[in-house]
Batch of 3 targets.
Target 1
Amino acid sequence: MKDSMKDYPLKLEGDNIPMVRFQNVTKRYGDLVVLDHLDLDVQEAEMVTIIGPSGSGKTTVLRMLMALEKINDGVIYVEGQPMTHMVKDGTLTMADNKYLRQQRMNIGMCFQHFNLFPHMTALENCIEAPVQVLGLSKKDAIARAEDLLDMVGMLEKAHEHPSRLSGGQQQRVAIARSLAMRPKIMLFDEVTSALDPEVIGEVTQVIRKLVSKHNLTMLMVTHQMGFAREISDRVCFFYDGKIEEQGSPDELFGDPKSERTQQFLSAVLEAN
Amino acid sequence: MTYVEFLKVYGPQLLEGSATTGMQTLLAAALAIIIAVTAGLMRLSKNRFVYGAATVYIEIFRGTSLLVQLYWIFFVLPLFGLTLEKFTAGYLAVGMNLGAYGAELVRGGILSVPKGQWEAATALSMSPAKRMVRIIFPQAFLNMLPPWGNLLIELLKGTALVALISVADLMFVARKINGSTYMSAQAFGSALLIYYVMSRAVVTPFMRWLELVMARKLGRA
């Protein structure tokens, strides 16, 4: 492992540095290989959607990038700087917690089950990290949070606890909470999977707004094929811990090359 | 001598003893909570020395009798040069013993907070300390309140043992009255009643109230 780190640059240089680069990233749980030597670049302001059967490693991609789990091999770079590793004595070594905390500030993440803090109101959820982590004054944090809650259409419910909000409302607050940290990259991990069908639209509407109005780089794992096709710049079909096929939404959905992609898409279409 | 007459004569002593029991309970509870939170957090540490130290503490204090621990603290520690007043030795022993039980409640309460809460806080770049204090512990606290109610009643009743090192608590007074009057039924009957009232009319309602307050804070009530 140590010798092989020489194959990875200390930082990315040159023109057109990708916002995110997975280089040769492998993740194993025991004998199970979840991500198998993954290479993936995401450009600034690009919206990349990851689709694939369950167990294909798609959620793991986001969790690796957010550094919620350690990778076994390879390096992830964010804005050209190593994310999973740090430079020490001229070589890349595993990032320590302090370094990760710093690097995570570039990234926001929304979860399938929202994970709002139940002991705080919607507004308190949104000001918690800006005040505690970024050191914003409470006043500034509230102003920022109210703007964002307004954007996701939740300003009226700012003083409600999550237990009094519907799933769709909670997810919208969760999006506002992530955005309050002013991340450059947003990760959406199956954010509509736990929602009732009739409220999925209010969440996708917010994401649509983000894509059209903000310069965010986004990675999204979803089962909403229609939404993925409509909104993505690029779609990656994951199979067995690898990218089986990727391309523009029209290419991937309209004219899939790989047999596995075709099978997956037709199975999903049939289910719908 | 009717029971009313008995109370007239010995009531004041019994009340004084009850006050001592109350003080022992409060001090022991405060100590138990501090120990429980410290040892409970240590048991969650990945550092095996930190984890090990807490485990040894918990094993010793849960695995041996409170009475033996009390005697050790009061009678044996002086042989090693540490002499404690009997009142101090009393609540120290009870607090340290119940703190060991409480540590497992704290650990369990913290582990009962869903993983998603830890991940959300981590994703917001919160430091482990802030994540614990601001996100995890408040939720864990509510989850662990019901078992803590039981533990505090155990603790209250456990303080009766301090009578055996001559702390003048309720049990000590009851024994003294019994010794001089042989009115066992009245003396120990009164003690029984007072312990019951203290646990059912003071500890339990207080814990219920605390649960309600915390549940409101968490938006669950």
Target 2
Amino acid sequence: MITTRSVADSTRRLILKSTVTAVLIAAASGVVSAEELGYPEKEELKFGFIKLTDMAPIAIAYEKGYFEDEGLYVTIEAQANWKVLLDGVINGQLDGAHMLAGQPLAATIGYGTQAHIITPFSMDLNGNGITVSNDIWAQMKENIPHEDGKPVHPIKADALKPVVEKYKSEGKPFNMGMVFPVSTHNYELRYWLAAGGIHPGYYAPHKGDTSGQIDADAMLSVTPPPQMPATLEAGTIYGYCVGEPWNQQAVFKGIGVPVITDYEIWKNNPEKVFGISAEFAEKYPNTTIRLTRALIRAAMWLDDNNNANRPEAVKILSQSNYVGADADVIANSMTGTFEYEKGDKREVPDFNVFFRYNATYPYYSDAIWYLTQMRRWGQIAEDKPDDWYIDVAKQVYRADLYTLAARSLVEEGLAKAEDFPDFDSETGFKPEQSGFIDGVTYDGSKPNDYLNKFDIGLKQGDLL
Amino acid sequence: MSTTISENSGPSGAAFLTRLGPWLLRVAKPLAAPLAGIAVFLMLWSMAAQQIDTSLGKFPGPVAVSEQFGNLMSEHLAEREKETAFYERQEIRNADRVAKDPTYEPRIRAYTGKETFIDQIVTSLVTVASGFVLAAIIAIPLGIAIGLNKTVNAAVNPVIQIFKPVSPLAWLPLVTMVVSALYVSDDPMVPKSFVTSMITVTLCCLWPMVINTSVGVASIEKDLVNVSRVLSLKPLTHVQKIVLPSSIPAIFTGMRLSLGIAWMVLIAAEMLAQNPGLGKFVWDEFQNGSSSSLARIMAAVLVIGLIGYILDRAMLLLQRRVSWDKKSALR
């Protein structure tokens, strides 16, 4: 308890002096690896993960010996849920973990447990889907235009709206599941619902309301990923947003129908990150760079030769100590196809992206998008200036560490410079992005402008 | 046995058969009922399994489960091979580093691969044994103290009665937090998760031993106590010569009860806290939700049951050996 509080205090101080600290840390790690990269300070590490296919880089780095190449002896351990996993990294039981992009950000700004968590490596793009139960699908289907007997994709939440309204008029809550309050899935599900005019509800942490159901048409609540299909089957929820293989498993089990992938909600959206504590990165700079190198190599392997290694990756992931689901369920999404309704298999070549499109580079603009969504739904209760968003992003998304790791890989001939962003000119901000399902464009350098573009959601100046 | 029969019976096959018949009957008779029971159970199981369709496929029957036993074993062997390779690679890497950097002291790090089913069984057994022994060390002296002194009994009894019926799952969060707060070291001898499981087991299997021991001690025959008084034995000698021997049957009854509870508690605790062991194996397989998950869980269920049975029998055997009261240890 005492340690948590002192970490929290120092984090608060860190935020105040954020720029100074960031510069200092960057300078310190720069000194260490200016010449040849030294041996790791800590060799035996324990990483946590949740049973989802996007944990693949960690499994591959282990199985292909990339961790060992760096002199790291890593134990990989499945965690019960995202909260347990985050606590593990905060209290030091885990040295690092497969995390939701929102977790390091939320922890650093003190939403939920407060601790300074950073990420030197973004794990993947896309990879999630929204699934509804068979019953809801039958009702939705009437509202979806068809072509050649098949529903036209992407399916918007407009088709779900009449169903939700019917439940509302009957006085029945329309329950849906997502995996964690600051999860990508929560924001994606909310984005999709709101784009179709369904209000997903606000959070009001300053009033002690963290249920996220204020003004809600659809009631969202937390269920751990592996339990999603069972909860849907039990009728506790009518739909969910989760990563693979849990959407495909609903199809295989015949209990639900995936309606949309997150690729269609926001093309090439950033997904999981690899989270470590800021303390760890400071104490073990060489270890941090080395584990980042191993993960970059694993991501490269996963996307190599146009996904040629994916079948082998599927086999590894289906082992019971990793994801453990049946290989054909995992293969469905990992090898470039996605099955919506049973038999309606469509090509989604970029459903799981691990390396191309600079997927592993921790862009500040990606971090800021998550922060804007936390603000949009009230998890960040009060207005923040644009500078605040940028400061937090730079504090948590450590592009400097990634750059050191990638450069040393290029120097050793283990990677090619053209596979990475041009580090000399990279600002960490992607150019203005379109590709959202509602057509709204996003510029990471102007978060408040972005928030003002939405019909549903808190805007600049709003306070619940 | 059969060799002696054939030697003695010589050429007469008929005589051999007539003697074999009763022998078979004698051996088979006590086995017949249990075997029939098992056969009927397997039949019912396999028939019922056919009828149950889960979202993970049909409920596993005996055949599917026995297949998984094979798989679990071969996974174990494959993992051991990977382990050997891991150590070989490590030695080469250490040698390389020493060549480059002579000040480096090479260290062999433990294998980082996954725990197999067999490893999980061993972990669970070690945990239950440690928790049980710790409980016995606390419970038996405490029970004796309570049994000897009415005042102590009156003082301690309400506390025991309140804690006795508490489920392990209620203790678990408290134990977890306390262990992580107090058990802090950079290089712990045993992992935290082990300590948590062990203490949870101890807390739950303490009470039957305390109660049985105290009852046993309190009901020593008056004559024996009087003899001790006449000889004016010292308190320690009194406990050693009079109290312990006469309360052994009661102590063992308590221990047997406790061991059974310990095993049940451990599986639940491992499952909830994700601590290594058979409970975690079951939970992991449930989370995996693959088509073979149910069969693997069923395999674990059978193993858990079998181990529970063996533990109980072992305790009974020990009891028969040590205790003078053979009547109390019949079933």
Target 3
Amino acid sequence: MAPVEDQPEDVLDSSLVDLNTFNQILEMDEPDDHEFSTSIVFGFFDQAEETFAAMDTALAEKNLEELSSLGHFLKGSSATIGLTKVRDGCEHIQRYGKLENIDGSSEPDEDLCLERLTKAIQTVKEDYKEVETVLRKYYEQFDS
Amino acid sequence: MSEILDLLPVPTLVVQPLGDSYRIQRASVGLLQAWDRTREDLVDKDLFVALYRGSKTARFDRIPLAYAIETAVATKALRLCHAAYVSGDDTWTARITPVHKEEDLSCLLLQWEKAELHVAVPDGGMSQSWLPIDDAFRILIHAVKDYAIFLLDTRGNIVTWNTGAELNKGYKKEEIIGKHFSVFYSEEDLQRGKPDGALERCLREGRVEDEGWRYRKDGSRFWANVVITAIYKNDIHVGFGKVTRNLNERKENELRLVAAYEESSRLKNDFLANISHEIRTPMHGMLSACSLLLDTELSEEQRETANLIDESGRVLLQVINDILDYSKLAAGRFSVQSDVVDIAGIIISVTRMVRTTLQPGVSMHLDLAPGLPKAMGDPIRYRQIAENIIGNAGKFTEKGSITVQVSVSAEDKTTHTLLTKVIDTGHGVPGDAAAKLFEPFTQLDTTYQKRRQGTGLGLSISKSLCELLGGDIGYERNPEGGGSIFWFSVKLDKVKKTTSTIPERGADEPSRSPSKGQGTDAGAQLNLLRGIARTKRILAVEDNIINQKVLVGMLHGFGFEDITVAGDGSQAVSILVSEGHVFDLIFMDISMPVMNGYEATVRIRSSGSRVPIIAMTAYALKGDREFCLEKGVDDYIAKPVNRQLLMQKLLRWLCHPDNPAHVNGNITEEAANDCPAISQELVQA
């Protein structure tokens, strides 16, 4: 319990995190602790790491369908927490995995989709790293 | 020289080998006179055709002579063939002399002598027969009633007939003596050459035994055991002995036994299936109640006891499910679905699950061959096999590692065969037990391991499932580390190339206006909701644990206490079945593994439940809403779930479950009691 808590908006870049959504999570915390939101956010970190690993495997196997479903899976939870960039990245993965362009039109070129997937996974990992660092930093202030 | 042969008074034939047959080269004048035949009739003709043409039993008649020639040639020695030719009432014995030029057979000399009358006449003049029968034996044999015992001459004509033969075959002695024994065979057996084959084999082997249908005089048939023995007198083949035993009774008993066994096996399986089903339903109820109990505040002792109930209940449920599967498989009532199987995805998911149960220090490796195909098969059954085999490896490996390998082992035009290998460094299977591994109800007991929980049906079920999926299953020792290698294969149909992607067009989300209705209205709504929340039960169906937690967190925030979470549609359906329809509202994620939200909704609706179902999905397809409604979903909320919107939906559906969209209608009394202070605007906000 730091005497003056940093507010999320002070630390979190709104291009990374949708503050309305993230605040919904924070509002579910008890007044004096952050147990609930911590479990959600850190639970998400674990889930994201696992999903990325699974994405790597699926990419190596060129398993587009699996990639699409993994993208969909992580999109759900990142959206719930409000991690906008990660969510968008996941949506791209979901679409490319379904042999679609970003706008939802179909893209029959499997190789092109794989190439896009490789890049999109790279990007989403970077975006995730960024927001993870910020969030960890945000939660560090409660650690003392 | 050749002329001398022609002029010989002794009945003589000179026969030349010609391929597989024998051609008559010369016939002596003595023979033409004795047999009253012309030279043209015989010379240059096939031996067997010339001798037996016109006989109804020609193909049997030739057997003794053909066999005698065969042995004469093979042994390069003289052979006698008794009764090789019949002319009028006389029978003639052939004396066969093979003539060799160096190693090659140049011709055969067949000299003929008249034999004594041998064919028994109906009055039973056995003493005239060549067949050696002692009087005492004849009396004994004649008296046997249970066996048909009779003699045949060299060509298969019946010579004697006992009481047993008369009783079993229905022919009187007078009408059968002299007839050919092939009358006892079916037309089909005759065409297949069964009786002649029997005689030929009998000559070669001395004896033949056979079981089959034989026909009586009245056309009825009986199942017979038949033994035919070749009879020789002074090394000359003189006939056959035939003993026929009626096995009808035994055969009928066998058939009755088989039918009784099948019936009892069917009854057993039906019983197992019914009883398992009946136990499963209350079992689900008990387990749900127990997990509710575990969610309450309990003393340590109580918690321990409740945990014990929970654990035992789960084991029992698994046992029941196994038995149910087993009895379905045994009864051949297991259906296999055809769907796209994502082998890699299933294996990843199963290993992820098993990983959580591994003992400390055990590692798990995944080795998926690159380019594993997506193919058509039954994903649920494949998963069931994988869970069993990989789960077993997890259970029985105390140190070391488990490796799961998947590869394509074969491929043809329409199918892939996928091989899954699970290699562990556990205790392995002792040699004598390996043979019984896949038999039902087998569990390995080892001194250093306590007996595992379960029925011992897992591997047997897996084996049957593999067979259903066109594959196989097996075990071998792990050459490294002394553990086990379990492998199984499944055959999957190739996917026909079609690209049917439904384009997702722009989002068509229902209005999301968190700002509207906030402030005092929102406060009033929240109070209203909190007032009714405690008494309501909610089922949240969602596969992503983060989303589960957040949704449950929000619902707790609204004052809901009774929230059940299901990880996929099929869990939701089974919870509803076991708990009865006690929920007031269901939140249903749409895209979930195993069973998606639409399918779950359809099942829930088809079970007759009218519980409000609110679909949740991360993206809205155009027409999604209509599709949802068509599937029986009542309403729809976009993800990420907005708390405000969620509150409104809850109010709307929990206060007016019967007519939520109603603006001016009458609130039913029940609903009014639930929400005493509700105002229409609030509900509609």
